[in-house]
Write the structure tokens for this entry.
Amino acid sequence: MGSNIFITETTIEGEGDGDAPLAGTTVAVKDNISTAGVRTTCGSEMLEEYVPPYDATVVSRLTDAGATIVGKANMDEFGMGSTTETSAFGATDNPAAPGRVPGGSSGGSAAAVAAGEADLALGSDTGGSIRCPAAFCGVVGIKPTYGLVSRYGLVAYGNSLEQIGPFAETVEDAAALLDVIAGPDERDATTREPETNGEQPGYADAATGDVDGLSIGVPTELLEGADEGVLEVFWDALGELEDRGATHHEVSLPSVEHAVEAYYVIAMSEASSNLARFDGVRYGRSGGYDGNWNETFATARQEGFGDEVKRRILLGTYALSAGYHDKYYKKAQDARAWVKQDFDRAFDEVDVLASPTMPVPPFERGESLEDPLQMYLADANTVPVNLADLPAISVPAGETDGLPVGLQLVGAAFDERRLIRAASALA
Amino acid sequence: MSDDAVSPEEVRHVAELARVDLADDEVDQFTRQFAEILEYFDALDEVPEVERDAELANVMRPDEERDSLDREEALRNARETEDGYFKGPNVS
């Protein structure tokens, strides 16, 4: 396959009969989600030969629901990137915009759905890694509320920020996949039963497209600096929602001006700790047995990790080190609390928030690799959502110069149904 | 570039703390990139002190014996094992 969507092609058959909710459905699974007996590389040379002895909870839920897994999808190494170009297994092309990146880090998952290689896909979103590729590939992607979906078996990168979530061509199909994977898991103590008033219908049943009376807030800070063509598509899509009875109001979220730096300090700090386990002893690339353990670990990690992973581990180590902890990590946690408060205030006034998912159309391949800071800045509209633990959805809004543009809707915690109802008016 | 721009020595020191060997050209590249990235992160100075009253509750489960991964499975991805244990390099 020339497009390099999968790192490993495989067939994991679903169980159950034809009545199972996902019977006859094919699913691509991001390669940082553990599959028993099928290698799970995280897009890294470090784990090129790693074969998990157990399934992630979401994988068991998929096969229990009758789905067939067709492959492990390409991704930025350990989820670190917005283009899928940091994968040790090569870049993935964008099926909706050839020659462009599919976004990242779950680029293979989005591309699989866009190219018709799978009906549905699972990705993970630490700072936009589901929504960015959904926007760039012209498909739907949902980042659930923190705690809605089990992370058991997801290889950790920034574990206070990340969630597994679905991709599909339509909001209803993505919601049907969310129905299968959502819900408490005794193996992930951060999962919880959503606070609801009694019995709730399924997520897929919420995809009615009814936006009559919906109040949409548009944070002015998330429009600043966006590409003109992207903004035009965004306002057209918003107009479509207003034609169906929604209204929009400008709102202000001053804290999000600091979200990118807060996000990167927290994500890198968590990464420096989470990726310390890769020393080549229990799994992963070995540094051999010459020299003492610090030397062989450092060799394994030099050889096994790519540039972006090293950058983030080192910067995270720096941010947590003596003398810098208060300046970076503590301030980033203050910013995170501030972002949460800003969102809470906004949801006192409006039902959902809307912005372009990405401020720019898909990059050309190779464009952003040499300048990491520029790549981080492109995440400005997606990272605030992870800092605030909120749910968000990216839905195709149209095209600018033939390139897909995504519209992001953000909701209050565990308000996925409202997001699904609203987004299903567009796709 | 701000006064506290990163030096190559600092990059080497952090890499040592993180147990990642770096080639000389990687040190040069990271020194340059870290200066730019950390200068951007300095904007966190403008963040006000925020009251952080997280409403978090511990989630407990009964401490009961249950099945875990068997030894053979757990050792399967290790490059070397000995007598049912992982084999690592010398400690010093």
